[in-house]
């Protein structure tokens, strides 16, 4: 995406201190539409924390964060409509099937352009499991459903925390293509990931949290 694309995520001089420990300090980050920033670093370095700050479920200790031109606040419907996430605490409805999840999403996010539920499920490798309750899916199938649900509905920003977890080799290839296609549609993506082929394919910028 060109350098002239809209800035969608902006973090200025961000600091987070928890329990007396400073996870990061003075962090700056800009993500434009169609651009992907990858967060990496050791366990406990603050990747999930930074993603939560971008979604408004955790506050910075210092600095400013702006997502879609506003302070992040996942309690606001207009914010959730623009920002789609798969974070550590993301969950499925155990009793609903993959098809029902996508149908529910297309009703909850009425602007969604591509309502081809069957196509999304087939590309996610879930077509044969489309009518099975989420509780009965494998860990990798549940992860595929969370990811496809996040990407299939309209959004301007996509936040992903180690989305490759539980995916097999084919699933990781699918994930890489999913993010690449989302970027081509103009989404701004921030992803914490240790999956090198994904990072190599999609990252415009890499941020090492230590
Ligand atoms: N709200 C909080 N209260 C107390 N400690 C917290 C809080 N948020 C984060 N931490 C601590 O901050 C550190 C960073 O956690 P975080 O989950 O952001 O790291 P991470 O880089 O995502 O780790 P991993 O690679 O293991 O997923 C951890 O030691 C965690 O226990």
UniProtKB/TrEMBL annotation:
Coiled-coil stretches noted in the UniProt entry, renumbered to this chain: none
Alphabetical list of InterPro entries matching this protein: AAA+_ATPase, ABC_transporter-like_ATP-bd, ABC_transporter-like_CS, P-loop_NTPase
Domain ABC transporter: 9-206
Gene Ontology MF: a single term: ATP hydrolysis activity
Alphabetized UniProt keyword annotations: ATP-binding, Nucleotide-binding
Source domain of life: Bacteria
PROSITE patterns: ABC_TRANSPORTER_1, ABC_TRANSPORTER_2
Pfam families linked to this entry: ABC_tran (PF00005)
Gene3D superfamilies: P-loop containing nucleotide triphosphate hydrolases
Leader sequence segment: none
Protein name: ABC transporter family protein
Organism: Actinokineospora auranticolor
